[in-house]
Amino acid sequence: MKATIRCTRPISRVDERLFSSFIEHMGRAVYTGIYEPGHPTADEAGFRQDVADLIRPLQLSHIRYPGGNFLSGYRWQDGIGPKERRPVRPELAWFAIEPNEVGTDEFLQWCERVGVQPMLGVNLGTGTPQDAADLLEYVNGALPTHYADLRRKNGHEAPYGVKLWCLGNEMDGPWQICMKTAEEYGRIACETAKMLKWLDPTVELVACGSSFRDMPSFGSWEKTVLRHCYPYIDYISLHQYYTNEDGDIPSFLARSLEMEDSIREIAALCDEAKAEQHGDHDVALSFDEWNVWYHFRVSGKDPEKWTVARPIEEEDYDDVDPLVTGAMMNTLLRNADRVKIACLAQLVNVIAPIMTEPGGRAWVQTIYEPFRCASVYGRGVSLAPEVEVESYDCAIRKAVPYLDCAAVQGDDGSLNLFLVNRSADEPIEAALSLNRGYAAASLQTLRGTALAALPCTFSPASAAFTLPPRSWSMLRLN
Known about the structure:
Radius of gyration: 22 Å
Shape: globular
Distance between the termini: 27 Å
């Protein structure tokens, strides 16, 4: 199979926040994930340094915290102050015990050490707008006021300066603690946003979109929320996870095209809200949960409830999953003009690229390298790829291109392409047409579990290379 690729038209500068992730108080993401006092690598605060050493190469911009479904029942005041005085709570989102050993201060200080920015959420399930404002005062307050003084008393004199805040999580989901209708959520999100911006005008706010595209509320939810919140918000969220429980790999590999449809549909609703309200700003998209998520359900395992660090949703990713996550990352890059924030969900143990053993080793899964390569080499200006290649039909879609591609022009002059060959048995002989001079080209391919260097024929006018069947690849031109 042959393919030709041209990349000339710029789409947008890629926002570095596109390369973000997510830590929720869910399963073993926190306890025995990032945090395990007594582990041989634990620092003085109890956080695992072997895990931090695997996180840093991802060059994450932000990490979203503390949820997720956990957020809708979380009392942030439980997680501050002396640990011996913190309450232990039943956690209703994931049927676990929450010891509150890790809270706001611990997480924010861990972010400082790891070198990432935090993206904090406020509880709009059981919480109130005042609870949210109190948290913002605690985190960012500079005045001599109650919660700012409490932060100082708890050992952090300077404000943390957190700029990115989520107004709740998946509030249209029946699984959510204190689920809301679009009208109910729109009103509380609007009033919360007003209070947060009055308290700190520099913050940026993300309103909840519908939980995923197949929800009955998808689209109508966003229209209602935007009608209430447009003047006060900066982003609206999208979430999407893809599954392959029926083993239909051709359809599984086509799912990223649905992701692209979702982005365009919600972006259009944001434009519509701006026009209807004669607005003066654009509401961008925050795709703050995305990944492959299904292996755990197929396994049929159901760990004991009401335990600390209940080991749920621990995916064992195979050699097809990184192709889907790679194509989803490509989708985000191709839509960099509308999507400004994206969080691979999650980061450690729970549907995650990084796994740990309690008291033991930490390692990476197959989805780690495609995300790392995109994060390291996908910064600059996204270019619209023009791809000529054969297509196939599958159960969910017609005319699926065998080759999925994203391209980014780096600030150093490099050109970086991220490529997925969806074909089960045919390699793709690809040629990239060049409109400027490059000195050299290199090709790395993931097929199975490890990156390998492959040959690439290079000339001033083109680069020719072969993509193995069912593979993810990165082509770099310097």
